[in-house]
């Protein structure tokens, strides 16, 4: 790997100085593939340390003295007062231990909305410092540098590090969360089988990298489409990571379903609960109005237009993304970012009593009779520890079962298309007479 050496700058920005992992060397090494954007600290004496505290009022920089010698340099910016001392590193005691979060496709539109939510504390909480590890391509590296500069200029106190790179084996080192957003979109005339193969290669490689260098209990959320099968490919290439730790994003579909039910019932959307999306993140997905509730009452008792529920409601959720593109001329990047936030918060926050959420998870051992060895969206609950359990007390009638079976069949067909990427032999792709679309495709 080509390396370049840069002389240490004489000054640093307040944000750069706030990093909890400041380099001790007198030079900053800059890799073409993995650029550490945090600069080294100001030169100090060998007996100094770094700590972060909250100042009650602003004050000018002062120098602490001991035996007549200047020992540390204290600088206050707004409410944050930083004391530098390289002898030891003292964490802010009121904050949790720093966590590493990887984001692929970090220069894309979805990430452009998501990264600032992560850095602000909106996702993991106001006392959780984070390090962002941003993965891009060779083509996007300059854009990725621009993203990192914006994060730097935003002065988020919880954002302790920003690293960017194009090698997943470097970017995924020790990460506890991996948000895999980057994927090739399906273009005009591209068959779904071709999209499965192209993106499947990406997620096979990323699964291998996670398996090699990530935290053994890393939580992985796959957003890049086709996300269910991409998540399956990723977990099959990461045998050292529990299969239960892999998720495919169907939270946006859940949010869309809640919105449609709230509009029809004339209530605010927070009155809608127990909303499940079953199956694949495609137009075969099944928004479950049978088990959903409005103000704690079954939806079918509140909305008596059952024909609308079976036809209008279901189709509006399945095709919402495509309609948005037709209206606005762009994909639903902002609402996708919000749904990623919601999906993570559902895992790190205890689920309200009696409620549940939707996420695409590994089907082995599921209580619904769905084929095993798939990633399938199902209802889940969490204790807030990053883990989840499947909800067992759900009703599945003949209407629901028939539609779930259709989405299941589609995922089984997709699985055959990527057998060469999951270690299951030669791929055979037959998606049937109807090549179903992903939400948002036109």
The beta-strand count equals 21
Mean pLDDT: 80
Assigned CATH class of the domain at 251-422: Alpha Beta
- Biggest sheet overview: 7 strands, mixed
Terminal-residue CA separation: 42 Å
Approximate helicity band: 25-40%
Number of helices: 13
- CATH topology assignment of the domain at 251-422: L-2-Hydroxyisocaproate Dehydrogenase, Chain A, domain 2
What's the alpha carbon Rg, rounded to whole Å? Answer: 24 Å
CATH architecture of the domain at 251-422: Alpha-Beta Complex
Q: Classify the secondary structure makeup into a structural class.
A: alpha/beta
In percent terms, what proportion of residues is strand? 15-25%
- Morphology: globular
- CATH homologous superfamily assignment of the domain at 251-422: Lactate dehydrogenase/glycoside hydrolase, family 4, C-terminal
What is the topology, as strand order, of the major beta sheet?
A: 3-10-9-8-11-12-13
Subunit structure: Homodimer.
Enzyme class: oxidoreductase
Domain Lactate/malate dehydrogenase C-terminal: 250-420
Protein name: Malate dehydrogenase [NADP], chloroplastic
What is this entry, summarized?
Helices cover 33% and strands 23% of the residues.
Description:
The structure is a single chain. α2 packs parallel to α11 (333-348) and α7 (251-265) packs antiparallel against α9 (306-318). The strands form six sheets. This protein has a seven-stranded mixed sheet with strand order 3-10-9-8-11-12-13, sandwiched between helices. The chain is globular. Mean pLDDT is 80; it is low at 1-89. The protein has 13 helices and 21 strands. The chain has a domain at 251-422: L-2-Hydroxyisocaproate Dehydrogenase, Chain A, domain 2. The chain has helices at 14-17, 109-120, 141-153, 168-171, 192-213, 227-236, 251-265, 299-302, 306-318, 320-328, 333-348, 398-417, 419-422; strands spanning 3-7, 27-31, 34-36, 49-54, 62-66, 69-77, 80-89, 99-104, 130-135, 159-165, 177-180, 219-222, 246-248, 272-273, 276-278, 286-288, 293-294, 297-298, 357-362, 375-381, 389-390. 33% of the residues lie in helices and 23% in strands. With 442 residues, the chain is of the alpha/beta class. Belongs to the LDH/MDH superfamily. MDH type 2 family. GO terms for molecular function: L-malate dehydrogenase (NADP+) activity.
